[in-house]
Amino acid sequence: MISEYMEHRVNSLTESGILSAVTVLMALIGVYVPFLGLVAILLWPLPITVLVVRHGFRWGVMAAVVASVLIAVIIEPTVAVRLALAFAPVGLALGYGYRLGWSGIRLVTAAIVVSVLAKGIALMMVFFLTGIHPFSGQLEMLRESYTQAAEMYKGMGMNEVQIEMAKQSFEHNLGVIEILLPLVVVTMGLLDTMVNFIVAGKVFKRLGMEVPVLPPFREWRLPQAFAWLFGASLVAAYIGHANEIPILFQAGMNGYMAATLAGLVEGVVVFEYAMAHYNWSRWASTIFLIMIFMNGLLFQILAIAGILDTVFDYRKKFFGAER
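Now predict its structure.
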């Protein structure tokens, strides 16, 4: 009995050390290797998820702490803080849900909530420690890139009036990006959760484990709350703009865009369901979707149709789908 316990402890320590080293290596790739670094950062929580599932929540926390300390020493303390606060909770949440056998929907929903909260806390912590806006570097990089491009076009003889108009358009778009930064944080939380959920599922399947899965894409149906969010956000954005209340306008714009993106997903789901119902080929439906995404008006129609589907359920009304 004692020997089995000691063997388990040794295995846990060994695997924890190996996976901690993997997280440090992924952080190094994320900081110093272009393009591949983005993938490494997105998958940074994965070793923690594996460790929690195989050995328990405590081992996952210990590995995250050890990896963060090593990253602080090897790279930079602020990088360690950002990774530990923004990404480690995602790995812990996914591992915890996998270990308890949660359904795919419950697991993904909980992990997304944890991820978004973690990234919000990480950004506030970075601002508190450095006094620098978390996205200031990226926004400044965009401005510098545009300035260089404008100089290049000017050297090629481009009309200065056109360059000035392009500059005004660019500054407007950059202002929109700044307004939508909260939505960027939510999107980041959604993206890294889904990537790690999918990859972790493949890893655990290779290890012979049963893993929770999400319903088929054509059966997805988002809650009616997105329709209410869409309407309330339009009202909030209008009142905020008309009465010069920046925070209300920003909240309204972020809610509007979030609801629109959700409606777009729902619209694609309904479109795919209709194509399958009428036995259209995959190639035909893909071509039609590409055409829709390339046309601004059709793009908006698809998003609004998706938002309305959360209320009216077209698949049940028109195709007899059972709920």
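The CA atoms of residues 176 and 253 lie 9 Å apart.
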